[in-house]
Amino acid sequence: MLARLAGRTRRSPGSACRQRGQVLILFVMGATVIFVIGAIVVDIGLWVSERRNAQAAADLASLAAATQLHNANATGDAQAKGIDFAKRNGFDNADSNIIVEVNPDTTNETVEVTIDEQGVSLFAGIFGITSPRVGASAVAAYGASPPGPDVALFASSSDCNAGRTLDIEANHVTVTGSTHSNANIHIEGPQDSFIGPVTYVCPNGFTEGSQQNFPYQPPPRMVGNQTPPLDLKWTDIVPYCDGGVTPGNRVITDLSLWQDKVICATGDLTLNVNATQARMTLAAQGRVLIFGAGNNLQPAGGLAGSGFDQLLVYSSSASAGLPAIGITAIGGEQTGYIHAPNSGVVFNGDQGVQVNGAIVAKTVLLSGNNIILTALVGLPGPPGPPQVHLED
Question: Whole-prediction pTM value?
Answer without folding.
Answer: 0.74
